């Protein structure tokens, strides 16, 4: 029995995990090419990247933006989401899925997720629809495609559009169709932590030409397709991508499939290993998710079996040299920005939307999302790029902690005393 690293023993894993982002001479050459061309602004590379990305997701159109967040904001506006409207979003996601609804002037309504895949629960979506609902937003969480067939049925029944937050789903497919092409539109992010990146960046995909034109106009100062340079048809903004970013993204596109395959192989190894360890439960795979991407690898931790908390487990795992994390601290609606303030005068520069509006989430409760915040464990996409021996070391470290868990239970007692 070896001593746990967190209690002063030797680490299971001593060397570094794969660094992120990944680049080589392709990105370097592309970047210098743009620099030396003097064509830095919204041109050929941006257009080429949009075409190639649309093709990857089996979509007719793609409109780039400077982030996933602005892609969401623009998509909501283009779909006509505004004051008085409600948008059904999952309670467990990155904050931007919901805050961008508020930026569009509308109200997010939180639906719970399913424990099996951490994606929005269609049954709860059906319960959350009201006459004010304007759109439903599935997030393909961690890269697992949400239950699109069932969600589409609900959306059709109520004549509502689906907007896919595909910010974890570059190259993902459902029944052979690219994510971002399944709903009315989809959005993707190329922020630094994402599976392909240009530091910042985003894109909206759709098969609807009018929606694509509207998004293009909104992202580009309200300009009109085929119009004059200084002709502005609507109130838009400027969230354009640069040629530098597009050049990097074109090089990064070539990494999507080989990286995706490596992460999927690592995930298969982890699924097999973790299923054999008491109290751990990998997520379920859905055969309709025909090309599965992994922005994260998530698994359930069972404190009742281990008799330590998830947080203690993650601390012990980190000490063994495994980069795991606890993920989101709380469901989206429990964030300070969505809760009434104790003293609104505390910070006059920060106005919480819940104050003085119908955005009061103090009684919202999504039990599965809450349980997820307590007991899920995340490994990030770059960790999954490690070779097979490394990936098996994760299981080795977990088994070591399991064997020695009584030492952590005792440490907890000692800490309490
Ligand atoms: C990253 C992310 C976003 C926002 O993307 P940014 O490019 O960081 O603005 C939106 N939704 C989800 C689910 C994300 O993970």
Structure characterization notes:
By secondary structure, the protein is of the alpha/beta class. 37% of the residues lie in helices and 12% in strands. The chain contains 14 helices and 13 strands. It has helices at residues 25-37, 44-56, 68-78, 96-103, 122-128, 148-157, 209-219, 243-253, 256-274, 303-306, 310-319, 367-375, 388-403, 405-416, and strands at 61-65, 86-90, 107-111, 133-136, 163-165, 173-174, 177-178, 185-189, 202-206, 280-282, 296-301, 324-325, 376-380. The strands form four sheets. The protein has a four-stranded mixed beta sheet, sandwiched between helices. Strand 2 (86-90), helix 4 and strand 3 form a beta-alpha-beta unit. Helix 1 packs antiparallel against helix 8 (243-253), helix 3 crosses helix 7 (209-219) and helix 9 (256-274) packs parallel to helix 13. The relative contact order is 0.16. The mean pLDDT is 95. The protein binds pyridoxal-5'-phosphate (PLP). Pyridoxal-5'-phosphate (PLP) binds at residues 67-69, 93-94, 96-97, 139, 165, 167-168, 189, 191, 202.
Record keyword descriptors for this entry:
417 residues; alpha/beta; 4-stranded mixed sheet; 4-stranded antiparallel sheet; 37% helix; globular; binds pyridoxal-5'-phosphate
Give the arrangement of secondary structure elements.
Layout: H1 25-37, H2 44-56, E1 61-65, H3 68-78, E2 86-90, H4 96-103, E3 107-111, H5 122-128, E4 133-136, H6 148-157, E5 163-165, E6 173-174, E7 177-178, E8 185-189, E9 202-206, H7 209-219, H8 243-253, H9 256-274, E10 280-282, E11 296-301, H10 303-306, H11 310-319, E12 324-325, H12 367-375, E13 376-380, H13 388-403, H14 405-416
Bound molecules: pyridoxal-5'-phosphate (PLP).
Pyridoxal-5'-phosphate binds next to helix 3 and helix 4.
């Amino acid at each position: 029995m070896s001593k746990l690293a967190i209690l002063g023993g030797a680490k299971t894993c001593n060397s570094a995990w794969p660094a992120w982002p990944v680049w080589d001479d392709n990105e370097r050459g592309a970047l210098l090419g743009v620099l030396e061309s003097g064509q830095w602004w919204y041109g050929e590379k941006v257009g080429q990247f949009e075409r190639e990305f649309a093709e990857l997701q089996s979509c007719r159109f793609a409109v780039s933006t400077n982030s996933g967040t602005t892609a969401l904001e623009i998509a909501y506006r283009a779909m006509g989401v505004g004051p008085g409207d409600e948008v059904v979003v999952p309670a467990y996601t990155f904050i931007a899925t919901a805050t961008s609804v508020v930026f569009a002037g509308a109200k997010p309504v939180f639906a719970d997720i399913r424990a099996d895949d951490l994606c929005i629960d269609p049954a709860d979506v059906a319960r959350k629809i009201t006459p004010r609902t304007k759109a439903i937003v599935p997030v393909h969480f961690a890269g697992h495609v949400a239950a699109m067939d069932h969600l589409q049925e609900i959306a059709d029944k109520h004549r509502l559009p689906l907007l896919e937050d595909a910010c974890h789903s570059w190259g993902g497919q459902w029944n052979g169709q690219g994510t971002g092409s399944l709903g009315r539109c989809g959005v993707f992010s190329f922020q630094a932590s994402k599976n392909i990146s240009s530091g910042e960046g985003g894109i909206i995909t759709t098969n609807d030409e009018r929606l694509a034109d509207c998004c293009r106009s909104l992202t580009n100062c309200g300009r009109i397709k085929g119009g004059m340079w200084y002709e502005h048809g609507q109130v838009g903004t400027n969230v354009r991508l640069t040629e530098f970013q597009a050049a990097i993204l074109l090089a990064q596109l070539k990494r999507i499939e080989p990286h995706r395959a490596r992460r999927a192989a690592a995930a298969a190894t982890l699924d097999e290993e973790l299923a054999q360890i008491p109290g751990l439960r990998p997520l379920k795979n859905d055969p309709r998710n025909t090309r599965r991407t992994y922005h994260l690898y998530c698994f359930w931790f069972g404190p009742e079996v281990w008799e330590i908390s998830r947080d203690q487990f993650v601390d012990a795992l980190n000490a063994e040299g495994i980069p795991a994390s606890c993920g989101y601290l709380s469901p989206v609606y429990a964030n300070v920005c969505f809760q009434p303030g104790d003293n609104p005068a505390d910070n006059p520069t920060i106005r919480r939307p819940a104050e003085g509006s119908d955005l009061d989430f103090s009684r919202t409760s999504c039990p599965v999302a809450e349980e997820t915040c307590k007991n899920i464990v995340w490994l990030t996409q770059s960790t999954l790029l490690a070779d097979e021996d490394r990936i098996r070391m994760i299981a080795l470290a977990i088994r070591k902690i399991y064997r020695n868990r009584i030492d952590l239970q005792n440490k907890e007692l000692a800490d309490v005393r």
